[in-house]
Structure prediction request, 191 residues.
Amino acid sequence: MVRWEPGATDRLRVAALELYVAQGFEQTTVGEIARSVGLTERTFFRHFADKKEVLFDGEDQLQKAFVAAIEAAPPGPPFDVVATALTTTAEFFGEERRTWSKQRNQVIQANQPLKERELLKLAGLATAITEALRKRRIKDPAATLAAETCVTVFAVAFGQWITDGETRSLAEVERDILAEFRTLALETAAH
Prediction:
């Protein structure tokens, strides 16, 4: 077996997702994933803590991207800052990631513990965004409301982006969802 080869992390990630889609998350073993790309279980564990992490290992990158986007956003109201962060981080999800994201979501939605892990990921993202907004001297409740809105818009837009037949970029979907949210908020405020 090949033990050390460039691209092992990506090969393991792709193989794991293919197996999860084909036979289910619970039914797939780490050994099967590793063997399918000519590696050992030990090598798998050098790249991922467990088989769930194959699906969630980009979490830190996404969180860092949101925080960096908030830090770099021009001065403005909290809502504008998170709108800028949404647009900036949408680049994280280029067209080449749509199929992966769709399959990943399919696996997560079929497994309750994975769905819970996904919700924890989103809660962690909201916490990180709130802290980044507070560092910009945005006080609560505005910081928390803006962060939770940002994560909600991201989650709704992401769900739309991976639906069959959707052709818009994630940034375009986010922009449309954000506009719908603003309209909804204004309509509510008017009544």
Summary: DSSP finds ten helices and no strands in the chain.
